Amino acid sequence: MPSNSSASMFGGAGGRGSRASVASLEGLRNVLRNETERDSAPAPVVPQTAAPTAAQAPPAAPADDKQTLRGLNDRLSGYLGRVRQLEKENGDLQKQIDDILAKRKAPEGRDWDQVEKPLDDLKKQIKDITKDNAKLLLQIDSTKLAIDDLKDKLEDEKKACKELEKDVDALKKTDEETKQNCKQTQNEIDMVKEELARLEQEHKKEVDVLREKVRDSDVTVEIESQNSNLAEIIHKIRRQYDKLAMKNLKETEEWYQSKFENIKVVEAQNTEVLMSGKSDLKELLKEKRFLEVKIQGLHSMIYSLEETLRGTQVEYGQRLTPLNKLILDLEKELKAVRSQVEHLVENNKNLLCVKMKLEAEIENYRRLIQGMTADTESLDLSLEDALDSDQQKPDSKAPEMEVVKEEAAVKQESAPSDKSTPSDKSTPSDKSTPSEAPEGDAIEAEKVFSK
Asked: Is residue 2 part of a domain?
């Protein structure tokens, strides 16, 4: 095959009909660059790979590009070798995959104990986590209850807090007063220190002046006596001045100490008062916080009690509604019974009045009957006399006898007709007495008439 032909570009990837042809060198270079980038990337697992194809172009290349074509052929041969190597590697990987799949499909290929061990550990972890969650929930509930109690307590604490704030304000005022006193004492101390420094300076000045005088005296003094000793005289003078200096120093120190002792005593008292005030303030602040927490707890307690009270009111209201209905119905029935009882009482009163009237009438009838019995006795006597006279004069006495009989019959008829109305309304015991009497009277009258 000639070197300038493009036949070496055909049959890529095993000579299965793939073809790479370009129209110019730039297009060929681009194709090769793309191929090298694909080679550097991880190749997919496929049984066979095909060479990339490009757009069709004239097969012949220019004569000046022979060297470039040779280099491209060399690169293509290396590419094909690389493809074969990758195919082998893909085959090996495919075999390994098939072996692994075969082992997984086999029942005895997997050790379930090794799989279950981490699962058991995970189950234990899940149980522990659930226990921890339950504990946390209990803690949350307990904290909620504690918060409610604290809220209730806070309400009480707020009330006490106001009083404590008043006490704190008073303590603040006292603290400010103590601070002012401390400032005043500090100012006094500074003044005393300034005075002490001034006195020290004055003392130094005086000492310097005296020393200068001593020096001058040393210079100007003339000793007339021949036996005098200047050293002893100077030594005496120095002793005197030292004594005066020591005396002045002691006096100043005593004054300074006495002054500062008083100041220290006042300052110690003020510091004690200040520390006690601070401790009281801290205690009051602690009490304030505690009372605030207590107030909050009491507020929540009051709120919960109000809610329970509302619930109980609603519940008992629901329970009392049927009872109220029953009470209203019973009240209505009671009113009806009362009205009936009142009506019966009125009827009873009326019956008692009627009974009293009937008893009075019965007594009147008894009196009348007694009067009638007396009349009947008188009639018996008159009838006997009349019969005697009739035996003597029957014709003249017959119409008189008829008149007497008619009067007796009329009396008998009128007496039972008048007694019939009250006897019906009266009791059975009342009926017996008046009815029996007229019957006896009638029998006696018949006997008289029969005679």
From this structure: no
One-letter amino acid of 404: V
With respect to residue 323, please indicate whether it lies within any of the assigned structural domains.
no
The amino acid sitting at 50 is A
**Which residue(s) pair with 18 in the sheet?**
12
3-state helix, strand, coil in the chain (%, to 5): 85, 0, 10
> CB-based contacts of 358: which residues, under 8 Å, 6+ apart?
422, 425, 426, 430
Per the structure, the complete domain to which residue 388 belongs is given by 352-450
Q: Cα–Cα distance between 112 and 128 in angstroms, integer? A: 24
Q: Count of CB atoms within 10 A of residue 160's CB? A: 17
* Residue 358: closest CA among 428, 293, 413, 295: 428
Contact between 52 and 20 (Cβ < 8 Å): yes
Phi and psi for 242 in degrees, rounded to 5? -65, -45
DSSP state for residue 108 in the 8-state scheme: T
Comparison of pLDDT for 8 and 76, the residue scoring more: 76
253 and 296, same domain (yes or no): yes
pTM passes above 0.85:
no
The CB density around residue 193, as the number of other CB atoms within 10 Å, is 12
pLDDT of residue 72: 82
Between 350 and 54, the more confident residue is 350
Q: Judge if 156 and 274 occupy the same domain.
A: yes
Residues 153, 185 share a domain:
yes
Tell me if 90 is assigned to some domain. yes
> Which tens digits make up the pLDDT trace of 146-205?
888 888 887 887 888 788 888 888 888 888 888 888 888 888 888 888 888 888 888 888
CA distance 52 to 405: 171
CA distance 27 to 54: 9
Number of domains present in the structure of the chain: 3
The 3-state DSSP class for residue 18 equals strand
The answer on 77 and 26 residing in a single domain is yes
